[in-house]
Amino acid sequence: MPENEGGQPPLHEPHVEKASRWLPSLVWLIPLLAALIGAGLVVKSFIDRGPTVTVSFRSGDGLEPGKTKVKFKDVDIGLVRSISLARDLSKVLVTIDMSKEASRFTAIDTRFWVVRPRIGASGVSGLNTLLSGSYIGVDAGKSEETREEFTGLEQAPQVAFDEKGSYFTLHGETLGSIDVGSPIFYRRIPVGQVAAYDLEAKGRGINMKVFVKSPYDQYVGKGTRWWHASGVDVRLDSNGFKVNTQSLAALLVGGIAFESMNGQKPVTAAPTGSEFLLAADQASALREPDGAPITTVLYFDQSLRGLSQGATVDFRGIVLGEVRSVGVEFDPVKKSFRMPVTVDMYPARLGRAFQKSVDEDQRNSAGSQVLERMVARGLRGQLRTGNLLTGQLYVALDFFPNAAPVKLDMSKETVELPTVPNSLDELQTQLASVARKLDKVPFDEIGVNLRDTLKSANVLIKQLDAQVVPEMKDTLGAARKTFATADQILQKDSPVQSDLREALQQLTQTMQSLNALSDYLERHPESLLRGKGSKQDKLGEKK
Q1: Tens digit of each residue's pLDDT (9 = 90 or more) over 267-292
Q2: Which of the 8 DSSP states describes residue 105?
Q3: Based on the number of CB atoms within 10 Å of its own CB, is 383 exposed (0-12), middle (13-18) or buried (19 or more)?
Q4: Ramachandran angles phi, psi of 304, nearest 5°
């Protein structure tokens, strides 16, 4: 091979071949297949995509986007997409992507809540979330209207929409120990729970919404009585010591019980939404209706310590009413304080005979006349001790015939009922009076005089021991001798006794001679002048 000028061998020219027809490579099939699968998944997800809703909660504690699930009866029906804050920062907004089957969960009355471990009146719930984490629970509504924004509940609802039963509304004075989820009892069987409660519009009591499960709701009639069954009812009466409670659950978290007046199933069940009164205890619930109360006020001039709101107004052992309020007022006329006690009394508790005596058409005027007559007979109010251990007081109504007459002023809106002091207060007043009188006694002077008197008595006793006692001993000795001599004289065989008997015999003979002489002188008084007569006179005397 010839060399070039530099002594290097010559370079070969490249051989160029013409390109054949282009064919696709098999490598491109893999991404193409992946793209097709992805597009299919997108289409499928779009087709299977359900509604998107936004739920507001107070806190997003335990919620995570892309992880927190939405469950209905432990079935996944959605997933939290995002969590954001509201504009006013008062709540969090949780966006949820629901599944296609969850279209019914957009009803306007659908309820959402966060399931966390909780301890409430209905028990312990959400323990499974300790390992799996919190999730959002949902209860499908029944309304035909739908929406996309909801307000979440802070607690799980006690009653699901698909649970059969009836709702009722109870009106009570206080909530007591009742809470949402507290049980409802019928003959000590749990048949429902408290669903909700709120305060009345005027703030005088509470409204409570309760749910009774089917078929127990058929035992609720129009005349059914409801009462608080919370805590323990302890009674001490003539039959002994009694403890009554519905169940351990009612003891811990409270409860409500109901029963008909006659204890039997009502003929007609009460419709759902019916309203009832909630009594404080079973005795108050099953008592006959009291009717409208009569409000009166009683003024006391003594301490009201131990008298509280709700205390009993007693009439000879019958609970006639209760104390509504206790206060204090200043009397500008007497320049002193007096204690007003306002009470509510129920005349219906005095019996049917009393009710019949008051005409129904003229109940107010007739009732005033009856009250005036009773006050004229001595009806008065008095504070008495109901419990010596606690010092609790109650208002007693009774007749005091010796009470000072009082005229009622029926023109006042609240009638003032006269009162009398407590017996214990009268005793204390008398004791105070005696104490004041005792304070006036000069005990110091009396003590000095008594001390001097005792000294004089000691001197006198010493003189008696030194002078009088020896003389008394001599006198007693002489008396013994005299008695001994008299005893000797009075003996039967003593000379004095013999001489005395002879003297008595001679005295008897002398008296007989005197009697004969007196008889003779009575027949012959002239013998006092002439002397004794002749024998003829003697003969004539004999004749």
Answers
A1: 889 999 999 999 888 878 887 766 67
A2: G
A3: buried
A4: -105, 20
Task: Please state, rounded to an integer, the average pLDDT across all residues of the chain.
Answer: 78
Q: How far is CA 109 from the centre of its chain?
A: 42
Considering only 49-53, 410-414, 497-501, which range has the smallest mean pLDDT? 497-501
For position 539, what pLDDT does the model report? 44
- Long-range CB contacts (< 8 A, 24+ apart) of 251-255? 253/121, 253/177, 253/179, 253/181, 253/182, 253/183, 254/121, 254/176, 254/177, 254/178, 254/179, 254/182, 254/228, 254/229, 254/230, 255/178, 255/182, 255/183, 255/184, 255/185, 255/228, 255/229, 255/230
- Residues 372, 410: contact at Cβ < 8 Å? yes
Q: Are 117 and 135 in contact (CB under 8 A)?
A: no
Tell me, what's the pLDDT at 408? 77
Q: Are strands 393-399 and 312-315 parallel, antiparallel or unpaired?
A: parallel
pTM assigned to the model:
0.52
**Alpha helices, DSSP H only, in 12-59?**
29-48
- HEC assignment per residue over 290-306: CCCCEEEEEEECCCCCC
Tell me which range, 71-75, 457-461, 505-509, is most confidently predicted by mean pLDDT: 71-75
Q: Choose between 169 and 102: higher pLDDT.
A: 169
pLDDT reported for residue 171: 92
Question: CB of 213 within 8 A of CB of 166?
Answer: no
Q: DSSP states of 502-542 as a string?
A: HHHHHHHHHHHHHHHHHHHHHH-TTHHHH-S--HHHHHHHH
Q: Is the peptide bond before 215 cis (omega within 30 degrees of 0)?
A: yes
Residue 299: name the closest of 270, 326, 277 by CA.
Answer: 326
Phi, psi of 124 (to 5 degrees): -95, 130
What is the rounded average pLDDT of the residues 226-236?
69
CA quadruple 298, 304, 310, 314: dihedral sign: negative
Amino acid at 331: D
Task: Quickly tell me which residue has 């907004």 as its tokens.
Answer: 93
What is the CA 349 to chain-centroid distance, rounded? 20
pLDDT digit string (tens) for 141-159?
Answer: 888 888 889 999 888 887 8
Determine whether 164 is exposed, middle or buried from the number of CB atoms within 10 Å of its CB (0-12, 13-18, 19+).
exposed
DSSP code per residue over 441-456: S-HHHHHHHHHHHHHH
Q: With the C-alpha atoms ordered 529, 530, 535, 536, is the resulting torsion angle positive or negative? A: negative
The separation between CA 245 and the C-alpha centre of its own chain, rounded to angstroms, equals: 15
Task: Give the whole-angstrom CA distance, residue 109 versus residue 105.
Answer: 9
